[in-house]
Specification:
The complex is a heterodimer of chains A (88) and B (329). Chain A is mainly alpha-helical. Chain A has helices at residues 3-17, 43-57, 65-71, 75-85. Chain A is built from four helices and no strands. The model of chain A has no long low-confidence stretch (mean pLDDT 87). Chain B has helices at 20-33, 35-52, 54-72, 79-101, 114-123, 138-142, 159-172, 189-200, 235-243, 277-298, and strands spanning 108-110, 128-132, 153-158, 180-184, 204-208, 220-225, 228-233, 246-255, 258-268. The model of chain B is unreliable at 1-5 and 316-329 (pLDDT under 50). The chains are: A mainly alpha (88), B alpha/beta (329).
Chain lengths: 88, 329
């Protein structure tokens, strides 16, 4: 899967998982922060998104708050995480 | 809220009364010299702690008075005697805990129907979340992984608690199939993902929901417990709603000969929709506190929260709590 296709798939996942009714995939800038600024998602959304990625791609992370923050910084970093760690 | 770093009486700030060396000595006495010398020593130690540790003594008194007033309508008649027995029951539970972790199987029996419910829950392969509390001996529950091969438990523990155990456990843990312990100070997406994958594999996540977290970001709600306002963490309930899985309660209580295990279904969040989540959490927290109350009523002396638990304890100066809609997890 190309990076662009994966990014699109992730945009859809974010919108569906978090039920962001007013957001279209085009609204999500791959370089913009997903949380607080940008889409304005909060930490519960982050947990939910993490669980959705775990279910869909079989990803697990070592328990480390800092790396968690880096991976979830923006769509680009999230796509990189899925690409390198996906098991399904 | 009353964050740990501004409240000197938050449970995480209170040094565990009982150094690693002291606990090891007691374990040695129990194993080498037998039960009677051990019981004698334990009584001496308990009396010493009762006299020397005012904070724990006052916490025990407050709890016992409130429970008795709630249950019987009056305060206990022999408070000192009752409180000493409360302390002793805690000392006993520490020893049992070490035995359980060392691979000495505790004598367990399940209360009515609990065994079948437990076997069914494990056999379903759906895994789940188990709420526990500091009433009874939750570590004993994990010993059940020795009894039922397919039962895999992951304990979510506050880093602080887990550290205290390390010193003792490093020397006494010989178990083949120890439960996995995940130490956290906050629940991050990585923690959630790890827990999600354990449950997907049919495992069980065990979490206590009667202590507010250490980190300032962890949110809590004030609920009435034994007739007085107390803080309860939202985190475990958010986790339960996000993990979308069966939820159970489990308790292990010491009885005359061994431990009684109560295992009950609590709820199932598999189909819980996003917009019903807030309402579910509010309701689930109420039901958890009701369950906790029943546990205290059935085993009054196995309440092992020896710190000012309520907001209106006489010996603390709690700040006005502030309700929050969403925790920072």
């Amino acid at each position: 899967m190309t990076t662009a296709a994966l990014e699109n798939e992730l945009k859809q996942t974010i919108i569906e998982t978090l039920e962001l009714e007013d957001v279209t995939p085009e609204d999500i800038d791959p370089d913009e922060p997903l949380f607080v600024e940008g889409l304005g998602l909060d930490s519960i959304d982050a947990l939910e998104l993490g669980l959705a990625l775990q279910k869909r791609y079989g990803i697990t992370l070592e328990s480390d708050a800092e790396s968690s923050r880096q991976h979830f910084a923006n769509l680009k970093s999230l796509a990189a995480l899925v690409e390198s760690r996906r098991e399904k | 809220m009353t964050p740990a770093n501004s409240n000197p009486h938050h449970w995480s700030r209170i040094r565990e009364t009982g150094s690693a060396a002291g606990i090891r000595t007691m374990v040695w006495i129990r194993r080498r010299l037998g039960r009677l010398p051990f019981q004698f020593m334990l009584t001496l130690v308990i009396v010493y702690y009762y006299i020397a540790h005012g904070l724990h003594r006052r916490a025990s008194h407050t709890y016992l008075k409130r429970l008795w007033r709630y249950r019987h309508g009056h305060e206990p008649r022999h408070l000192t005697w009752l409180s000493l027995r409360h302390f002793r029951s805690f000392g006993q539970s520490l020893m049992d805990k070490i035995d359980a972790w060392s691979g000495i199987p505790p004598r367990l029996h399940f209360s009515n129907g609990s065994h079948q419910r437990f076997v069914d829950a494990v056999a379903s392969g759906r895994g789940g979340l188990m709420f526990v509390s500091h009433v009874g001996n939750m570590e004993i529950c994990t010993a059940m992984s020795d009894m039922l091969e397919d039962f895999r438990a992951t304990l979510l523990m506050h880093t602080h608690n887990a550290r205290q155990f390390d010193a003792v456990l490093a020397r006494s843990a010989h178990r083949d199939n120890p439960p996995e312990i995940i130490e956290v100070s906050e629940i991050t997406p990585s923690t959630a993902m790890r827990l999600g994958s354990r449950i997907a594999e049919g495992g069980f996540v065990v979490i206590a929901a009667d202590r507010v977290p250490i980190s300032d970001s962890g949110r809590a709600r004030t609920l009435s417990f034994l007739g007085h306002p107390a803080r309860f963490p939202e985190g475990p309930f958010w986790l339960a709603s996000l993990l979308r899985c069966p939820v159970y309660t489990i308790g292990c209580f010491r009885e005359k000969d061994g431990y009684r295990v109560d295992f009950d279904p609590f709820d199932d969040t598999s189909e819980l929709s996003r917009h019903r989540r807030e309402a579910w959490i509010a309701d689930a927290m109420q039901r958890y506190v009701a369950w906790l109350t029943r546990q205290c009523e059935s085993t009054p002396l196995q309440w092992f929260n020896f710190f000012p638990f309520w907001l209106d304890c006489d010996d603390t100066h709690p700040r006005e709590s502030q309700e929050s809609e969403r925790p920072a997890a």
